[in-house]
Amino acid sequence: MRHLLSTADLGRDQALTILDTAEDMASVSGREVKKLPTLRGRTVVNLFFEDSTRTRISFEVAAKRLSADVINFSAKGSSVSKGESLKDTAQTLQAMGADGVVIRHPASGAPHTLAHAGWIDAGVVNAGDGTHEHPTQALLDAFTIRRRLHGAAGRGRDLDGVSVTIVGDILHSRVARSNVWLLHLLGARVRLVAPATLLPVGIGDWPVEAGYDLDAAVAEGPDVLMMLRVQAERMHDAFFPGEREYSREWGLTDERLARLPATTMVMHPGPMNRGLEISAAAADSPASTVLDQVANGVSVRMSALYHLLAGEE
Amino acid sequence: MTTRILGATLPDGTTADLAIDRGVFVDPAEAGSARRTIDAAGLLALPGLVDLHTHLREPGFEQSETVLTGTRAAAAGGYTAVFAMANTQPVQDTAGVVEQVQALGLRAGYATVRPIGAVTVGLRGERLAEIGAMAASRAAVTVFSDDGMCVHDPLLMRRALEYVKTFDGVVAQHAQDPRLTVDAQMNEGEVSARLGLAGWPAVAEESIIARDVLLAEHVGARLHVCHVSTAGAVEVIRWAKARGIRVTAEATPHHLLLTEDLVVGYDSRFKVNPPLRTAEDVSALRAGLADGTIDIVATDHAPHPAEAKECAWGEAANGMVGLESALSVVHAAMVETGLLGWADVARVMSRTPARIGGLRGYGRAFAVGAPAQLALYDPAAAAEFSLDSLHGRSTNSPYLGRTLPGRVRHVFHDGVPTVADGGLRPADEVAAARQEVVA
């Protein structure tokens, strides 16, 4: 694997290999000395053009547990034209001999451009680009689902037949896009639920069932209910009338939580708006995988960096 | 003193000799001794091409293009006249600026430069620019456009259509509803959904065109629609023409050949406004051009410096250079597909754009006594389009690396050779030869 830009680029075996390696990495994280020498002498740059402390720290911990040298490069707020700075920054990193670049950028496709414009030789990991993709989030979500379902015995298994309902702002969600391709690849059945304003035009060819009715989706008792974060600015752009109506129609309220089977997992990529898309009780319930997702994020990112930089395949 | 062109194929398929003397076509039978003879066997003689939609970028954006470099690109593509869009800096919204652009064109000598005047001051869409002063200036502006920006305010658009009537001008509208296209990055549809790029829906173009043709009907004015890009827009214009509304429309070469699928690699050479659309839209545009619903091909030649394109898609500038490739692209999209013959190409790329823009001398191609505007084109040639094919200051062409048919071999502008044997002639020679003709 040269780069990790989109889950749509992954084959089934490739995806399963990343998840299985993440199992190995998870066992490292359980040890007293949480470190492997695998990437000793390699340099990983966290290039963040957008604030995201959680994702940056997760990648930083992952790289450090593999003994890589980690440089955090926060390029946000640069006064030069952003386009120039992406190229200039890339060339700077190239001159410094970066082996891997983990990039978060507000423009969809920026990691693709970084990987293919010929500015840099390093492997590129997309840590979230605009409203396009966030592949390591989808991988950690799949990993979390597999672990909840099968425990450590999940190795080598896909998500055949698992029903996953993703609820909320699909239009602007890079998490949703990466999850749709990956979950479908792994055999899951994916349903999207959102107000029509927050479903993209042109998803007729997506391997999903799309609808508007969260209560109907809850009544089907999906194996996984994934709630997406609602950005406050969407309200000002007339995507929906207000928080209360959104919460009433598309929020995971206590009442909807009570109607879900006990086996349903409640997922959220974080950070959560408690009381808006998810109630406090739902967020803190045993069904919630939110903290598992955070912990698994480190294992999955270790696996991704390992496959990108350790020079196999 | 005469240039003789022997055995050229005319657009109607017949073969003829042509002769040029002192800037005009002369009867070859009565012409004097030839100073120069061109064997044009196998070459197609087209009237000099006319582009109603060119961005020359001067004054203000000389790092992208100048009047000189842009008209060199034009000549290389077989053009002898270009209409220069108003979104310069300062904007072409006063007599002074349009006269300056016109003078720069005359000095360069590669093609006639007809400045387009802004509809509104600073293209800001707030109040009318000095349309009468620009019409009465030495530049004699006839086409008014805020291209790049839509004249969105319906009342202002109505007034502009009415006011321009006073000077027998035409408003060329960039049809884009700004509210429906906030931050828009590409055509809205399956590809934008997948790529996570904000969509530019077809309805944002079609709704403005529908409004504008109704306004033009109501006030009895002429309307020209820039860069039509959607199947629905073709339908609206077809309806308007059937109703007798005085509307003309253009399609760009890139919208006749390229589709939104090219955006998948986030290569910003394919970022343009209006965006590349679907294969169905391309088919509808071709059919519209073939049946006359769309009157002309115009390039929307939009040069940008490398740094405006070498960045993430969302941060890249909109636009493609197109003057050097236009004829070959129309050849590929319309002639090789059997939708247009060469006489139609002469109509949609020379005669009709000249008529819409009020440019004299293009009514009857090759007529004795008419200014000698001529392009000799080798339709049998085919080559990979490369950086060597580009002659302007910018290289943001979507066709680099693509094989295109045909090659421009010779171009005469007012009888002055600007392209000879496939190569641009040097600026000093063109300027000197032009002085001779004028004298």
Q: Would you kindly provide a written description of the structure presented here, covering whatever features stand out?
A:
The complex is a heterodimer of chains A (313) and B (439). Chain A has 313 residues and is an alpha/beta fold. Chain A has two domains: 7-134 and 294-309, Rossmann fold (3-Layer(aba) Sandwich), CATH 3.40.50; 135-290, 3-Layer(aba) Sandwich (Rossmann fold), CATH 3.40.50. Helices cover 42% and strands 14% of the residues of chain A. Chain A has helices at residues 12-29, 53-65, 82-96, 110-116, 135-150, 174-185, 214-219, 233-236, 243-250, 254-259, 280-284, 290-309; strands at 43-48, 69-74, 100-105, 123-129, 163-167, 189-193, 209-211, 224-227, 265-267. In chain A, helix 4 (110-116) links the parallel strand 3 and strand 4 (123-129). In chain A, helix 2 crosses helix 12. Chain B folds into two domains: 2-44 and 370-438, Roll (Urease, subunit C, domain 1); 47-357, Alpha-Beta Barrel (TIM Barrel), CATH 3.20.20.140. Chain B is 31% helix and 21% strand. In chain B, the strands form five sheets. Chain B has a five-stranded antiparallel sheet. In chain B, helix 6 packs parallel to helix 7 (231-242). The longest helix of chain B is centred in the middle third of the chain and has 18 residues, at 202-219. The A-B interface holds A 8, 81-84, 86-87, 105-110, 112-113, 116-117, 129-133, 174, 177, 200-206 and B 185, 188-199, 201, 265-266, 268, 307-308, 310-316.
